[in-house]
Design a protein that fits this description.
5-stranded antiparallel β-sheet; 21 helices; 2 domains; alpha+beta
Length: 476
């Protein structure tokens, strides 16, 4: 990205940041406020009141001392339970004595607003897109901000923004061969939310020892630091609460997963409706997870991991990682629209892969049902606001399927030029199908034996000339 493209990209970023900060600075942030209240309790030596009793169903509401502290901060109506690892409240606790909540929220708002376009640009690089960076950025930002996927995440200042950014960072660094940075990024994402740890199956299948070692060392270090700072009893309470979340069937307008669809259709026991306290729409309906549904979700998760193992060498890696994270979120008991920010960040690649007409139509048809243009329609049509979540889930499944389709039809073609053996211009030698990991060892040996000096790869539609060095490594 040089010259005019860089200037246009900078202009888009500056415009976006000016508008975003004007909108999002100063908004109430219940999710961050609950972390701040938990950190204040930890600093005051009242850590026992941070996590709930771990009872099923998990209704997301804070209880006891935690709820009282949130009420004192002005969040009586939306007092959410703290469900993140203890490490972060232990690190945040000293700040509660130095700055106020409003300053903390303002700083995080600036960071989150900046991470959204950074995530899209990272997706542009991780997908090796041929689209100009400004075009990819504009389409990605429009997709995110026109739907609850990105807009709700920013309105609530969600930690999930950083998680999705780190997942794409891991994908991009893995693609570039920087295994140490990739492993550290995925470990940090897993320390914020637990589910990214499952994506390590891609590196296991690829036998990427450097990324795995970095992931293990960084993750292990963060885990030991967490236990050292917060103590094991708090971690035990955290794990009990996570078990309660896994055992809960939950539906809401913002729930985007398969259990939410089944719950809206009446699967399981009757759900208990919980109001956020806003006086607008019911916020949550929860109940115990039926045993058969829990087993179904676990089976589906195993199948997703097996598919990721099988497709671990698929290209581009940015799309593979994004759809992997999205598919895992679809099969978790509690996931919201903003869990899929990485999916929408890579979505402009559909235009790159299938062309402006087919790709653009696919992108538009999958995003339109979950956009703010149609959300009022689903709210008025349904027997309850849960129809919004059902439609968004179905649209997300369609988008993930379209991205997977792009991965499955990718072919890699290698052109060779060997003036000694093949007179004339470059000739087609052979095709390498998409299910092969790369220009594999056998292919490289064949090329070296024939004195090849230039190869051309097609990766998801991207054509890049690369030289093959004497050691067989592809180098730009």
């Amino acid at each position: 990205m040089v010259g005019r493209q860089a200037q246009i990209t900078a202009l888009v970023l500056a415009t976006y940041m000016a508008v975003a900060l004007q909108i999002f600075i100063g908004l109430p942030n219940p999710d961050l406020a609950t972390a701040w209240a938990a950190a204040e309790l930890f600093r005051a030596g009242e850590a026992a009141g941070i996590y709930g009793a771990g009872s099923v169903p998990f209704d997301t509401l804070a209880r006891g001392a935690h709820a009282e502290r949130l009420e004192a901060l002005g969040y009586a109506g939306e007092s959410f339970a703290y469900i993140y690892p203890p490490l972060w409240i232990a690190l945040l606790a000293p700040l509660t004595g130095l700055i106020g909540l409003d300053t903390f929220l303002a700083v995080v708002t600036v960071l989150n607003c900046a991470l959204v376009p950074a995530m899209v640009l990272l997706a542009w690089r991780a997908t090796e897109s041929r689209l100009p960076a400004p075009a990819f950025l504009l389409i990605g930002l429009a997709a995110l901000l026109a739907t609850p996927v990105g807009a709700l995440g920013l309105f609530q200042n969600q930690v999930q923004i950083a998680v999705c950014f780190l997942i794409l960072l891991a994908a991009d660094r893995s693609r570039a061969g920087a295994g140490a940075a990739a492993g550290a990024a995925l470990a940090l994402a897993s320390a914020l939310k637990l589910y990214p740890v499952l994506l390590v199956v891609i590196w296991i299948a690829r036998r990427d020892r450097r990324a795995l070692l970095s992931f293990a060392l960084t993750g292990g270090g963060l885990g030991l630091l967490s236990i050292a700072l917060a103590g094991w009893p708090l971690h035990s309470a955290f794990l009990s609460q996570i078990a309660a979340v896994s055992g809960t069937l939950l539906t809401s307008p913002g729930s985007v997963n398969l259990p939410a669809i089944l719950a809206a259709l009446g699967a399981g026991a009757p759900l208990t409706l919980i109001d956020y306290g806003t006086g607008q729409v019911p916020g949550l309906a929860v109940g115990p997870m039926p045993t058969w549904l829990g087993l179904l979700l676990k089976t589906g998760l195993v199948l997703v991991l097996l598919l990721l193992w099988r497709a671990s060498h698929a290209v581009p890696q940015g799309v593979l990682w994004a759809v992997g994270a999205g598919a895992i979120s679809l099969l978790t008991s509690v996931s919201w629209s903003f869990h899929y920010m990485a999916v929408l960040a890579v979505a402009p690649w559909l235009i790159d892969r299938f062309g402006p007409w087919r790709g653009g139509a696919t992108l538009g048809l999958t995003l339109l049902p979950m956009s703010y243009l149609l959300i009022p329609v689903w709210r008025d049509l349904g027997p309850g606001p849960q129809l919004i979540g059902v439609v968004t889930t179905l649209a997300m499944i369609a988008l993930i399927a379209a991205l997977c389709r792009g991965l499955t039809v990718v072919q890699r073609r290698v052109d060779i030029e060997d003036e000694a053996a093949v007179p004339g211009p470059r000739r087609r030698a052979f095709d390498l199908l998409a299910d092969q990991p790369a220009v594999d060892d056998t292919a490289i040996d064949m090329l070296k034996e024939r004195g090849v000096v230039m190869a051309e790869r097609r990766l998801g539609g991207l054509v890049a000339d690369q030289r093959i060095a004497g050691d067989g490594e592809l180098k730009p």
